[in-house]
Design brief:
The protein is globular. α5 packs parallel to α6 and α9 packs parallel to α11. By secondary structure, it is an alpha/beta fold. Helix content is 36%, strand content 18%. It starts with 5 loop residues before the first helix and ends with a helix. The chain folds into two domains: 127 residues, Aspartate Aminotransferase, domain 1 (Alpha-Beta Complex); 220 residues, 3-Layer(aba) Sandwich (Aspartate Aminotransferase, domain 2), CATH 3.40.640. InterPro entries: Aminotransferase_I/II_large, PyrdxlP-dep_Trfase, PyrdxlP-dep_Trfase_major, PyrdxlP-dep_Trfase_small.
């Protein structure tokens, strides 16, 4: 039985009902929203390239198409990755031993809840503020056990925004392989940054785990590109893993053909959309850094070019729930850290256009000033 996702239950009714949205982490487009149109306005006048969506994703990750599975968003990709890893032990089906999944903490709630719904045991390992939420292979090694089949992390880390290198991801994948486990890296926030890096081992201008032995990378058009209405995601892994994931995927809804066609348009224009996204990331990350510098009672680290971060109060007795409740009373949405497993603060996400973000941060600062 799949458990309820407390974060989803909490946040969905609040997003549209809140005047100041510092909860949405996807980069909302300027102008008309996609929800009001059959075709997202940014894609209306664009040609559909004569290439498959799968091949466009494969080219970006510099892997063969056989190593890509297009999915109905990243949540579906992550579910398929967990189900596939749990289905396989050394390539054999092992229905009687579902195994364990090791998940980072703090972390995105569905990363733990989804494999638990698949019948897996879920263990956690820590990413701590003391190390800047670094991803440490030694912590993964210490927390794995003989039946660990999947290790799940996010890069950028959700909720802190910390991004680690491809080399560090490869070290973590090697630790997982020693237990015959895969490393799942949710990369929806990886492209968030001030600049793009175009070199081997990078995709959408950021380090990727795709192509690393024993790693599974997932991503989508939702966060960085702001095309959540298309429900386009993908899974990138070795060919054997992808083939098994494809077998599992028949139990889920396929991606609608209109979404595939529009996704091709979006990926064909990734350079243009990516530049706009990085400009937004840079502006909004600077706003968040300035906001924290101006409010002595609030603390948090803004990682390079990342328009979200984990914010705490330095005042005794003021935790994430207190910050969130005071903000909500003033019409400001921030996400309590308890949904990520760290109740001491809140995630502040600046996905809205910069002028909206500026007003929202001002309202947030006023709401929590006297706590």
């Amino acid at each position: 039985m799949f458990p309820r996702i407390d974060y989803v239950d909490w946040v969905l009714p609040r997003i549209d009902a809140t005047e100041h949205d510092l909860g949405s982490s996807d980069l909302h487009p300027e102008g008309p929203t996609d929800s009001d149109h059959v075709v997202p306005p940014r894609l209306v006048d664009r040609e559909t390239p004569d290439r498959t969506l799968r091949s466009l994703v494969a080219d970006e990750y510099d892997v063969p198409s056989e190593q890509v599975l297009v999915t109905a968003g990243t949540s579906s990709a992550n579910l398929l990755a967990a189900a596939t890893a749990l289905r396989r032990r050394g390539g054999d089906h092992d229905a009687d031993r579902p195994g364990s999944v090791l998940v980072e903490k703090p972390g995105y709630e569905p990363h733990a809840a989804t494999p638990r719904g698949l019948g897996a045991n879920v263990d956690r390992f820590l990413r701590t503020a003391e190390t800047g939420y670094d991803l440490e292979p030694s912590r993964i090694e210490a927390a794995t056990r003989p039946d660990t089949l999947l290790v799940t992390v996010s890069n950028r880390h959700n909720p802190s925004g910390r991004r680690v290198s491809r080399e560090r991801l490869a070290e973590c994948a090697e630790v997982a392989r020693e237990q015959d486990a895969y490393l799942l890296v949710d990369e929806v926030y990886a492209p968030y940054g001030r600049r793009a890096v175009h070199s081997e081992g990078h995709a959408f201008g950021a380090p990727t785990a795709a192509g690393v032995e024993g790693a599974v990378a997932t991503g989508s058009l939702t966060k960085f590109f702001g095309f959540g209405s298309l429900r386009i995601g993908w899974l990138v892994a070795d060919e054997s893993f992808v083939e098994h994931a494809r077998e599992v995927s028949v139990h889920l809804s396929d991606v609608a053909r209109p979404s595939r066609l529009l996704g091709r348009r979006a990926l064909d224009a990734k350079t243009e959309f990516g530049a706009a996204g990085r400009d937004r990331c840079a502006r909004n990350a600077d706003l968040l850094a300035s906001f924290l510098a101006d409010h002595e009672h609030l603390t948090g680290e803004v990682f390079e070019g990342c328009p979200f971060g984990f914010v705490e109060s330095e005042r005794e007795g003021v935790d994430g729930d207190a910050l969130s409740e005071a903000a909500e009373a003033a019409g400001v949405l921030v996400v309590p850290g308890r949904f990520f497993g760290v109740p001491s603060g809140v995630r502040v996400a600046l996905g809205r256009p910069t002028d909206e973000v500026s007003a929202s941060l001002e309202a947030f600062g006023e709401a929590v000033a006297d706590l």
